[in-house]
Design a protein that fits this description.
alpha+beta, three-stranded antiparallel beta sheet
Length: 203
């Protein structure tokens, strides 16, 4: 099972609803983000300008570097759902997993000395229709959640509808195989393999 997000950048408006929903759902401290949204661009020369928004969260890698380097086993994959998680009771705050994640998807909570990250709202997993808060609150319908191993899931269907040529993953420097898929077609912008990310206003 490979539960993850598919994010349709053709639909993303950069409104930050996902970031706000995530902070509210998980009671995240000020200055901490599990799901920041960056700006890529603008690129090109007027009048041929391109730009898109890029939400960044845990990529739910198939070969997570964070798990490999964790000395206590606090970073682990839930066998039933496939979601990469952190066991707060076993985390010693050593930040080894931060070095194992090239996507900067983790951060140390200074108040608890525990590493935190996006969990795909794992605490909702027993809901009848498990859906992360960011997906539920995306006003543009840009975020889709589901199991990539299930061809009938909403995530798999979104990828199939978009076409392989419009589906992208973040550059993978260490064969971690990030599962999160970004849909971006040339009608919106050209996918950047090594984008220069522009930080946006903090919530």
């Amino acid at each position: 099972m490979r539960n993850c997000l598919v994010i349709d950048l053709d639909r993303c408006s950069g409104c930050d609803s996902c970031t706000a929903a995530c902070k509210h759902e998980n009671s995240i401290d000020l200055g901490v983000y599990y799901n920041p949204v960056f700006t890529v661009g603008p690129m090109g020369t007027f009048p041929d300008i391109e730009m898109y928004w890029l939400p960044m969260q845990c990529q739910q890698c198939e070969n997570p570097g964070c798990i490999e380097v964790c000395p206590t086993g606090a970073s682990y994959r839930d066998e039933e759902s496939g979601v990469v998680l952190v066991n707060a009771d076993d985390c010693i705050g050593c930040e080894s997993c931060l070095t194992g994640c090239p996507f900067n998807a983790r951060m140390l909570n200074k108040n608890t000395n525990v590493v935190e990250k996006c969990t795909l709202c794992f605490h909702r997993k027993n809901d009848e229709n498990w859906e992360p808060a960011c997906v539920h609150n995306c006003c543009c319908g840009a975020r889709i959640f589901g199991d990539l191993d299930d061809p009938e899931s909403a995530a798999s269907k979104a990828i199939a509808a978009a076409g392989e040529e419009n589906c992208h993953r973040l550059t993978d420097p260490g064969d971690l195989r990030p599962a999160t898929v970004y849909i971006l077609s040339p009608k919106t912008a050209t996918w950047q393999e090594s984008p220069e990310l522009m930080t946006r206003l903090a919530l």
